Input
Amino acid sequence: MNFLNRIVALDRRWVFLFLFVVVSMAYLLRNYFSVDITVTKEVKSIYDFIEKRNEGDKLLISFDYDPSSLAELHPMSRAIMLHCFRRGIRVVAVTLSQYGAGMVEEILREVAAEAKEAYGVDPQYGRDYCFVGYRPYPAMVILGMGENFRVFFPRDYYDTPLDSIPLMQGVRNYDDVNAVIGITSGTTADFWIVYGNARYDMPLALGVTGVMATDYYPYLGNAIFGLIGGWKGAAEYEKLIDRSADANAGMPAQVVAHLTIVLFIMIGNIGYLLSRKSTNAVS
Amino acid sequence: MKRRVPLIIVFCVSLFMVIQYFVPLDSLERVYRSFLDYTIIIGVFALLLGIWSLCRVNYDKIKRKSENWQYAIITLTGFFIMTIAGFLSGWGRTDNYLYQHLFSYVLVPIQATMFSLLAFFIASAAFRAFRARSLLATLLLISGLVIMIRFVPLGFLSEPISDLAGWILRVPNMAAKRAIIIGVGLGAVATAFKIMLGIERAYLGRD
Output
């Protein structure tokens, strides 16, 4: 077997090993190099939307992801909530993922504490944010919330009747929040578009994983007013709110991983083209 | 009768859902809201059915010692431990120490690890399958490379590459995806009509 054939038929374990080494190195050395982030207009439009809201306006944020995509979607959740708390926007949180409740409860508490430390605001549960919890069957829950949040969530996550929560008084359905932001890693994004936006016509923005992002570009400008895709999108949002955190810290590893994949694709193609050329020459 | 009654129910309910969507009457809205309540009840029973099915299938697997039956033990053990932990004081909320810790320190790392493996498989698959074998494959290859390279800081090249990646996503990608979505949408309408009119009956099962 000649060198070219060896490259083309490289054992995948070498690819795994190489990727592991470079990503580990990039993550360990993340403090020594930074990635210049260009902000895209689909991310900027979400930032602008929140920026233009008045203090006391309300957003419904749906955290529809599970621990498998926590690393990718938590940074954008944090960045958006921090921005809301900084601007005095009230947040109604919900999760349509069966694993989401624990994560959402945790992130709400953490971000509220972070906002206090970073911006000197003190978001209070019930006044500035609340968490209504989880219910199964996302399509049905989205339709139900369009009629009245209390159809599926008569009480919040902590068993408090929704009408006893100051933030939820007067909040009946999507008409009473300024927009819905769905941060999602699965088909729930489609449900938000089809059953949420198409039926109830509320302003909708999505935060999705990197691999999902291309699927939702067709809805930009009509069904959704903004889109945040993966770590890159989260890093853009962090740049907009001027707070470098998890997404920016992870960008070097992501860049190196992409470069490695690009490198392997190029090596594979060079090997393929040269081996094809030599095969043609022989025949 | 066994098939006719479900077909009549499906026809009436789907006809109502179509009408209430296009006719904004309060009376229709009220019925629609009660339908949403029904879905909660049906959902709860479906959940119980799912739990029963999970236990039954895995129990049978263990009983018959079929292939990989050991995994069924792990599934059932995990299921019962999480259920018991959830029913302990706190009912699955954060004040439930055991449940929350099982979630944070067992489930989260397991799922995160599984998802992380994706990067390795993508790298390997891209290396093997992304070959410029034809014109279309080459176009796909170039588009994929541009989309990936946009993350990489390349000095003065970063901005044009980012613009090009944005154009690929917003123009050809959007056009192709919209065509697919419209096709799927029309297909979904046709399927819905087939179910409504009783032409498509697969959901009734074989009996």
User: Anything to note?
Assistant: Residues 6 and 101 of chain B are 45 Å apart (CA to CA).
